[in-house]
From TrEMBL:
One example GO MF annotation: sequence-specific DNA binding
Organism encoding this protein: Marinobacterium stanieri
Domain HTH araC/xylS-type: 175-276
The protein's name: AraC-type DNA-binding protein
Entry-linked InterPro entries: AraC_XylS_family_regulators, DUF6597, Homeodomain-like_sf, HTH_AraC
């Protein structure tokens, strides 16, 4: 998430502050980490518009990999020697199959939650739930593409992309949407449209229209994403967790509602996800560069 006030990226989370208020949002793709053959390398960005860079070799021997909703735009490079490729990936609204090829090396750029890079020739709404070929979406990127996919060193790939992005800006977001995004993240997605109306001073219709134009989705859809990411983050970082308490903390009416929502957005139940995370030693798979 990038707010006009301040935004600082820290690995898989973004801490943003306005005045004396500080909120943290998360943008994790746990199935990517779990599908890494060895380590999942991660590099924090110094540019507030970019959440982080990542690199891994895909191991698809155990089946499908899923992308979960994160409110972010990713650029994913397949650095295969024979048939390199790159895709611009908008956030899904529910868990969906991510096409990764076995033993291929990937380099990724994850923009901060809510950021749409202005060099992309597509709207925020067109990005959500869609993927586009990078070279068709960004004219003139071929020289950087060839250098990035031809370099096997993670730090060099990061440097090359930063060189391309230097001086560029994210697409401008309205103050109305920024206030709404900040409030949604502050409440971990547990917020009603009436509260957002009171906060922004705009009617529900005006707020939803502006938010849709800026973010490519409704405030309700974005709130679902923030709540999902908060749940995933808690499970990833807590060795012992009571799901009924987590459901209550995130504002779900009851545990069955939480279970249904989690399965839609993460493609498995919280208990099965927790078991997979613990068996795979999730946090130790991530290697900070």
């Amino acid at each position: 998430m990038v707010l006009s006030m301040l935004s600082v990226s820290d690995g898989n989370n973004v801490t943003a502050s306005a005045g004396n208020k500080t909120v943290t949002s998360y943008s994790e793709q746990p199935w990517f980490v779990l599908s890494a053959a060895r380590h999942y390398d991660l590099h924090m960005s110094q540019d507030p518009a970019i959440s982080h860079f990542y690199s891994f070799e895909a191991d698809q021997s155990e089946g499908l990999t899923f992308a979960i909703p994160d409110g972010c735009v990713d650029i994913l490079f397949d650095c295969d020697d024979a048939r390199p490729d790159a895709q611009v990936c908008g956030s899904p609204l529910e868990a969906r199959h991510a096409v990764l090829k076995h033993k291929h090396s990937y380099f990724g750029v994850r923009f901060a939650m809510g950021v749409v890079p202005d060099f992309l020739d597509v709207s925020a709404e067109e990005l959500v739930n869609h993927e586009y070929g990078l070279l068709e979406t960004v004219p003139g990127f071929e020289p950087f593409f060839e250098q990035i996919v031809g370099d096997s060193t993670f730090s060099s790939q990061v440097e090359l992309f930063n060189r391309f992005y230097s001086g560029k800006m994210p697409r401008k977001t309205s103050d109305t949407t920024l206030k709404a995004v900040h409030a949604i993240c502050q409440q971990k997605g547990d917020i009603r449209i009436k509260e957002l109306e009171n906060l922004t001073g705009y009617s529900s219709r005006t707020l939803q229209r502006q938010f849709q134009a800026d973010m490519g989705m409704s405030p309700k859809a974005f709130s679902r994403i923030v709540r999902c990411q908060s749940a995933v983050h808690e499970i990833n970082h807590q060795s012992s967790i009571v799901f009924s308490e987590l459901a209550s903390d995130l504002g779900f009416s009851d545990q069955p509602h939480f279970l249904r929502e989690f399965k839609k957005l993460v493609s498995t139940t919280p208990m099965n996800y927790q078991r997979r995370v613990q068996q795979s030693d999730y946090l130790h798979r991530i290697r900070y560069a």
